[in-house]
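Give me the 3D structure for VOC family protein.
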Amino acid sequence: MANQHGDFIWYELLTNDAGAAARFYGAVVGWQTRAAEGSDRGYQILGIGGEDVGGLMTLPADAERAGMRPTWLGYVGVDDVDATAAEIVRAGGTQHMPPTDIPGVGRFAMLADPQEVVFYVMRGATDGTSTAFDQGKTGHCNWNELATTDPAAALAFYSAHFGWAKGDAMPMGEMGDYQFIDHGGRTIGAVMKRTPEGPPPAWNFYFGVEDIDGAAKAVSANGGAIHYGPAEVPGGVFIIVAGDPQGALFGLVGPRRS
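Predicted structure for VOC family protein (258 residues):
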């Protein structure tokens, strides 16, 4: 695996209507969908311009019965899945799925941080480099944002296990700082305090689009809901936070063309 320990390497949507979700994101982000080779769970690959960005699968029935709802999850690349999973549990995290092999793909585990935010860790089976996170490309994830009950504790946790570091910060008044996360010589996202009236603590992933206004119209026209934006952010680009027709939250980021 050519990516560094601590890189985001994959994004996955768990949903209760895989077909409808594939059509929605195809219209909004431009992803093409294909079946994953050898998958017995109907796993689908999301790609754009010949590069794979993420996956899509039906939310397992047992997870749905346990209260899990449609959601986006991120995969963090690690050098040793078993060791990292054990360290995270010792540090107060939770293991939802033990280290498991996917033949020809890699080894992964589903975990949660001490604030109960779910994520995956993974070691790929090959030395290929993931471009799922690429801030220079539309259709790829451009930003990883964690909204949590305890930003300082969360950043300390992820820094200890993945080598992330504090970057700059933007004051947000009573909400505290919007704390940027640096890793591998670049800023990969941020940690912020969850708003009391907002969704439960979670990662939100912002995917790049060519035109934020066009993407916002596509969200609404295809059964999604815009919860915030378009709003300008540093760098002269705009963001929206939205929900897909099945209720999974996601973000979009891009320029305003009109």
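The first strand starts at residue 8 and ends at 15. Let me know if you want a second pass.
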